[in-house]
Amino acid sequence: MKKLAALTIALTMSTAYAAEHFAGIEFHSSVPKEQIDALKVDLTYLYKTPVTTTYPTFSSMSGLTTLNGANMHNWLLNRVKYIVGETYELTDDNIVMKRFHSFPKTPLPPGFESSAGTEEVTTVMSNIGAAVYLIGKKENMLFGLKLDNNNVYAKSPRTGILQVGRGLFLEKFAINKELLSNANSISRLGTLFHEARHSDGNSTHTGFVHATCPEGHSYAGYAACEKANNGPYSLGAASEIQMLQNCTTCSTKDKSVLSVRAADSMARVVDADLATQIHRLKKAIATADELMKAYEDLASKYPDKVHLIEAEMNKIKRKRTEFQARLTVLEKVKPSISPLDPKPEGDYKVISLKDSVKTMERSLKKTK
Amino acid sequence: MKTSSKIIIILTAALIVGAAIYLKGSDVSPSDVSPDIQGKVPRVQETNSIDSVIAEPEIVSVKEAQLKEELNEAMEKLPMIVDLQKLHDDEVHFTPEMVNEGGVLIGQLLEAADNDPARREETLNFFKACAENSSLVEAIRAVCWKTTLSRIPKWEIFLPVSDAEVPESIQDMAAELPDL
After folding, report:
1. Between chains, do B106 and A223 touch, taking CB under 8 Å as contact?
2. DSSP code, position A166
3. What is the pLDDT of residues A156-210, one digit of tens each?
4. What is the mean pLDDT of chain B?
5. Which of B104, B137, B157 is nearest residue A257 as measured by Cβ atoms?
6. B83: which chain A residues are within 8 Å (Cβ-Cβ)?
7. Does the distance separating the beta carbons of A256 and B176 come in below 8 Å?
C-alpha cells in the first residue's frame, strides 16, 4: 500500500513538474524545449551583457535610473512570471474562477473586449494575464488559469502570463538565420519588453491596450497603435535601441533590420506629448549640428565644391534656427499631456532586485 | 617608329580592348552580376597602362549601369504602405515579414557599399531617394534617412539634403536610431 502511494506520488510529481523554471520565470509544459532553450539564451544575454551606452528614452520610459542587466531582468520579472506555449488554450479546462473578488473601482479601457479569435494565425506573443484580468474585472469574477500544478488567479495586470508562439522563432521574422545570435536575442527580448508593458497601467489604460490606427496611418484600421508614448510599442522600441547600442556582435545588416523593427514600433505612436515634441526638436538641432560639421569637413576636402557646400550649410543653418525658435516656444508651454501612469492596479507583489539577482544566479549555476 | 605607325598601334590596341570588353559584357548574364549585393562586384581584369587609359570610361559605365539597375530593382522590392493594408490583423501586431525583409535588403546594400567604395555614391543617392519615397513604409524611410545622414561623413561624399522631402515624423524617428 505504501509502495503504491509512493509510486502515485512519484508519478504525479513527474507530470506536475514538467514545467521548467529559469531566471524566475515558469515555463509551462506546453512550451517546446527548443523555445525554452532560446529564451534561456535571451534572458542570459540580457542579464550578462555589459551596458556601456545608455539610451535615456528607455531609462525614463522604464523608470530604471541605472541601466544594467540585473535591473533590466528585474524589470521584466516583475511583469513576466509565466510563459505558456502556443498550444495552451483558453478553454474551460484551463480556466478557474472565484466569486466575490473586489476589483478596483476604476473604469475599463475604452472598447475593451475579449480578443479570442477563431482563425488560424501565427502567434508571436501575447500577454494573456492582463487580458484575463480585464475580462474578470468586466465580468466581476476573478478568473485564473491552470498552469501545470498551479492555479494562477489574475488579480492584477501584473499577473504576468505570456503566451509565446512559433512566430517568435521563425526564420522569416528573424534578424538573421542563427536562432541564437545576439541580434535575434535582442529581437525576441524587444518583443518580451513590449508584452511586459501590457502588465502595467491602471484605470482606462490598464494593460496599455492597443488603439486602432487612425485614417492616413500606414496601419489604418488595425488595432496596432498606441496613443501614449510610453506604451508597449514605444517601450519595446526603446528596449531594442538600448540593447542594439550595446551589441558588439551585431553586423551592419543585423543593425539595419533591428532599426527597421524599432522604427516600425515608433511609427505606431499616434499622439506625441509635449516632452516628446521638445525631445524631438532637440534631436533635430543635434542632427543639424552634426550635418554642419560633416559639411565643414567636406568643404576642406573638396575645395572645388566649396560654394555648393556653403549654400547647403546656409540652408541647414536656417532650418536649425527654425527648430530653435519652435523649441523656445514649446519650452514655455505648460505640459498638458503627459505619458500614461504605468503603475498597475489590483493586487500584486513586487520582486526586489536582490531576489531577482539571486534567482538568476541560481539558474545560471544550474545550467553550467 | 613614325608617329603614324604609333597611332595605328594605339588604335589597334584600343579596338582589341574594346572588343574584349564588349565580349565580356555580352558574356555576363544578369544572374551573374546580381550578387553585387554581397559586395562581389564583377571586375574587369586589370590591363596595362595604355589599355586602361583607353578602356576605363567603358568599364565605369558598365559597372554604373549594373549598379543603377540593381538599386532600381531594390527600390521596387521595398515594402509599400499599400501592401500593409492587405495583411491580416495578427500580422501587423508586430513588424510584418515584408517590413523585416526590407530591413534585410537595406542592410545588404549598405554592407556592399561599405565594402566597395565604387558603389557608395549611387547607394547614397538610393538611400536619399528611399527616404523621400512617400509610397514606402515609414520605418524603411526612417532607416534610409538615418543611413543617408550617417554615410555622408563616413564615406566623405557631398550630397545636399536640406531640401530633401522627408517629413519631420520620419526625421524624428531616424534621429532616435543608433548609427548603423
Report:
1. no
2. G
3. 999 999 999 999 999 889 999 999 999 999 999 999 999 999 999 999 999 999 9
4. 76
5. B104
6. none
7. no
The CA-based diameter of chain B, rounded to the nearest angstrom, is 80
Side chain identity, residue B43: R
How would you classify the pairing of strands A25-27 and A82-84? parallel
* DSSP assignment of A319-366: HHHHHHHHHHHHHHSPP---PPP-PPPSS--PPPHHHHHHHHHHHHHH
Q: Which among A139, A140, A168, A132 has a CA at the least distance from the CA of A31?
A: A168
pLDDT-derived band at A143 (thresholds 50, 70, 90) equals very high
Task: From chain B, pick out residues whose CB is under 8 angstroms from the CB of A264.
Answer: 95, 99, 137-139
Range of lowest pLDDT (A175-184, A220-229, B11-20, B153-162): B11-20
Could you give the dihedral angle defined by the CA atoms of residues A255, A260, A265 and A269, in that order, rounded to the nearest 10 degrees?
120
pLDDT at res. A337: 53
Q: What pLDDT, on the 0 to 100 scale, is given for residue B61?
A: 64
CB contact under 8 A, A256 and B104: yes
| Grid coordinates given for A243 | 540593447
Closest residue in B to A292 (Cα–Cα): B153
Cell numbers representing residue B8 in the block: 595605328
CB contact under 8 A, B160 and A302: no
Record: contact B158-A291, CB cut-off 8 A: no
Nearest chain A residue to B150 by CA: give it: A291
Nearest-10 Cα torsion for A136, A138, A140, A144:
0
Tell me the ipTM for this assembly.
0.87
**pLDDT above 70 covers what percent of chain A?**
90
Contact between A132 and A144 under an 8 Å Cβ cutoff? The reply is yes
Q: Is the pLDDT of residue A10 over 90?
A: no
Q: Which residues of A touch B110 (CB under 8 A)?
A: 252-253, 256
Provide the shortest C-alpha distance from residue A349 to chain B (in Å): 29
- The conformation of residue A229, written as its DSSP 8-state character, comes to T
* Contact status, residue A85 vs residue A163, Cβ threshold 8 Å: yes
User: Any idea which of A93-97, B17-21, B110-114 has the lowest mean pLDDT?
Assistant: B17-21
| C-beta separation of A167 from B90 below 8 A | no
Residue with cell 547600442: A245
Q: How far is B79 from chain A (nearest CA, A)?
A: 11
